[in-house]
Predict the structure.
Amino acid sequence: MGSGKRICITGTGSYLPERIMTNQDLEKLVDTTDEWIETRTGIKERHIAAADEPTSAMAAEAGKRALVDAGVAVEDVDVIICATITPDRILPSTACYTQHRIGAKNAFCFDVAAACSGFLYALKTAEGLLVANGYKTALVIGAEKMSAFIDWEDRGTCVLFGDGAGAVVLTVGDDSDAGSRGLLSSVIKSDGEYTDLLTYPAGGSETPASEETLKDKLHFLKMGGNTVFKHAVRCMGAAAEEAVSKAGLTKDDIDCVIPHQANLRIIQAISDRIDIPLGRFYNNLERVGNTTAASVPLALDEALKNGRVKKGDKVLFVVFGGGFTWGATVVEI
Ligand SMILES: CC(C)(COP(=O)(O)OP(=O)(O)OC[C@H]1O[C@@H](n2cnc3c(N)ncnc32)[C@H](O)[C@@H]1OP(=O)(O)O)[C@@H](O)C(=O)NCCC(=O)NCCS
């Protein structure tokens, strides 16, 4: 980082809605099978938010839990960044809704839209604010209600996604912190050539909502799954290797890899590519599916709470999503 400041994750929290939808439930909605979904994706079930539970409700719950975990008072939060592609509304930001829900009166708040990579983009943005702009505490949240943006008649997408939220508290490490604890390196990339491969085609300024767009279901997520798959493997593998080397580490120093939880076959391919065994990866997609920007912080919180990740561990996050966007971050917990 070069500033002498260490930016540390001092608390984590997550939230999953109560309702669980299994692959068997999906068999009743579209022409699919539990066997197809599990062998092609690794997913068995996902959580689905209630009708009166927007993204900010989940973000707020995860955020509150992270603040308690960090021992940080809500008034001390300087900034809330919410990574989401399923905002409560296009205007205002989900981060502002979240601020109101948790009572973080002193924070300034904004969203980051980088699809499944959003959490790492938000983390990098927060790091910059803490390192160079004098802020002391950031609440960085990934939260998604994908179920509201999915075409429940499209078997190519509806079997993949789930709802949920994860949050971390970032603070500036004080001098008493031992070792190199904190964010060690990150690599963040985009390629706008592929905007059409993962998109909501309508509802924005290019194609505003109309009777026609509703009829054609253009407000729902459309994805070229196969092409996304190939790019994801290549880009995530390269970003992971670059982030590890940028941190001055080798793959053997990494205690745990937390990848974006999109597809177990993508994760297996990354493991092969970067030569870190699958046993050193933390995966929960079997139970939660692809929760987009919530994926990494949700898995991180789980891994910390169940002891799979411990203080002092070096953890590699690696993500890929619409845009395309992708990246990797190494952090010492
Ligand atoms: C979506 C994904 C699981 C599809 O797996 P795939 O092996 O690429 O499968 P394909 O898209 O080539 O489809 C193979 C066949 O299965 C069918 N199929 C697709 N979804 C199906 C489902 N839910 N149930 C049964 N069959 C299905 C297709 O129609 C196709 O049939 P066809 O051969 O008769 O045309 C996979 O491409 C993927 O995970 N992509 C990454 C998506 C992602 O994670 N995006 C989020 C951002 S990273």
User: Anything to note?
Assistant: The domain at 182-332 is CATH 3.40.47.10 (Peroxisomal Thiolase; Chain A, domain 1). DSSP finds eleven helices and 13 strands in the chain. The pocket of coenzyme A is lined by residues 32, 36-37, 40-41, 116, 155-156, 159-160, 223, 225-226, 228-229, 232, 262-263, 290, 320-321 (CB under 6 Å). The chain has two domains: 7-172, 182-332.
